[in-house]
Amino acid sequence: MIVQKNKPPKVTTVGDVVSRETLATGIRVNLRIVDQLTLRKRISPVEIKAERTYRVKNPAGVITKEAWDTIKEALKDREALILVDGEEDLLAIPAVLESPDNALVVYGQPSEGLVVVTASAEKKSEVRKIVDRMTEE
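RE: above sequence
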């Protein structure tokens, strides 16, 4: 597995399925971001124990300042959980930008599988350009 091989400084999962699966397989994750929805349908809550739990509001299709700031704060913890009231889909963006270099951000791509992003300077630059395009509108 990529986590054992690369030994990243942080691992973040965004999404209920990937968060549940990493928990079930014992993969060490520092930050899990969930909204208790899968494909926009309510699922039974994943029982995740973390040293610190945050709650944020983040409507579908946006990234709130509250959610972004909470991700930044939670990444300082050894183990944290963010429960999102709304939708967590776009929160992989601030997770990549706020993670230390070489950290991993893992999220699900519906009907495709898992996407693993390494928070490198190059990837952060790419993601910043996406954010800049989003904020121009």
